[in-house]
Write a structure and sequence with these properties.
single chain, 348 residues, alpha/beta, TIM Barrel, 18% strand
Length: 348
């Protein structure tokens, strides 16, 4: 029977120190290994060149490093890079590097597939197969940081959890990954540069606030009318807008941080004056920002991007009520890397 070794990255620094002292070595050896794993992104024990061959052999005998592999890479005409990420068990997720003139943003996945059922999102058509481990999330960030340095000559500046999966349905692992990403023992990025985007799970939004997280929150809203939202995001029946609004008020009261709403306007679905008025009313309880996002088709022809007049109606009415609004053009559409398009079309 094959012995499955424990992934060494599941150990804390203290546990690594204990492992080495228990095996007749110095405690600081654990610090060295921890640095190789999290600051230097080592994928193999032999990469740890300041350790003796005997020490590396001992680690190989006891542990594995279940690192990800960039299985495929596509580059868009606009410079966006989409990665097909193969996990240690052969499953595939996707992540995206989105470069602009001044920044490089990593869009990372948190689940294989998705737990929710948004009708406009390609990922929701994949059943949720499993949650990603903290190191698998972390590895995506490391890989994209290396790509940004290689192709654009600068390190990663921002991270958004807007890839495959609902982050709040993998709450503990997402928080552990962000802790590593923002720790001085990890990548040392500022939590202010991290955005967790959720479709709206009220209980978990409240928990984030109570846990005192330092990163930013975005909500995939798309309608502030329950019947409309349920028609395109059926889970809204379980988590209605009243509960979502209460949770977001708790978030703002606890953190004093602005709430960003991600919002796609579709023809014949949410493109009327009454839709805008409902959104304005929903935004009243706390300072907020609305990102109007260009729709990215997923081949079925059910949803269609609203015309410019509808977008302009949203912008003018929101601005008249002093609500910050931006119109965000999608990146990477030609390689199915844009928002809502991640679905492992090229999986093997």
């Amino acid at each position: 029977m094959k012995i499955v070794k424990k992934d060494i990255r599941a150990l804390s620094k203290e546990e690594l120190r204990f492992f080495f002292t228990s095996n007749g070595d110095k405690a600081f050896r654990g610090n060295q290994v921890y640095e190789w794993l999290w600051q230097k992104g080592a994928h193999h024990f032999d990469d740890m060149t300041n350790l003796s061959k005997e020490t590396r052999q001992m680690m190989r005998a006891n542990f594995s490093i279940n690192h990800i592999k960039v299985d495929s890479m596509q580059r868009s005409l606009d410079g966006t890079i989409k990665n097909g990420i193969r996990l240690h068990d052969g499953m595939i997720v996707e992540s995206v590097l989105i470069p602009t003139a001044k920044r490089s943003t990593a869009c990372v996945s948190s689940q294989v597939g998705c737990s929710l059922d948004c009708k406009f999102c390609a990922t929701s058509r994949l059943k949720r197969m499993r949650n990603l481990n903290p190191d698998e999330i972390y590895d995506q960030v490391v890989a994209i940081d290396r790509q940004s340095k290689l192709y654009y000559g600068r390190p990663l500046s921002n991270i958004v959890f807007m890839g495959m999966g609902e982050p709040l349905m993998n709450y503990n692992n997402v928080l552990k990954a962000i802790d590593k990403i923002t720790s001085k023992d990890g990548l040392g990025m500022s939590p202010k540069r991290v955005v967790v985007s959720t479709s709206g799970v009220p209980k978990m939004i409240k928990k984030m606030a109570d846990d005192g997280v330092k990163f930013n929150l975005a909500v995939s809203l798309h309608s502030a009318i329950d019947s409309v939202r349920t028609s395109i995001m059926p889970f809204n029946e379980t988590f209605p807008l009243k509960d979502l609004r209460e949770a977001l008020k708790h978030w703002y009261d606890s953190t004093s941080r602005i709430i960003t709403y991600e919002y796609v306007v579709w023809e014949g679905i949410n493109d009327t004056k009454s839709d805008v008025e409902a959104l304005i009313d929903f935004c009243k309880f706390a300072p907020s920002k609305v990102n109007l996002i260009e729709y990215n088709p997923i081949d079925d022809g059910i949803f269609h991007q609203a015309n410019n007049a509808a977008i302009e109606l949203y912008v003018s009415m929101l601005e008249a009520k002093n609500i910050t609004v931006t119109v965000r053009r999608s990146r990477g559409k030609d390689i199915d890397a844009a928002c809502g398009q991640l679905a492992n079309k090229d999986k093997s």
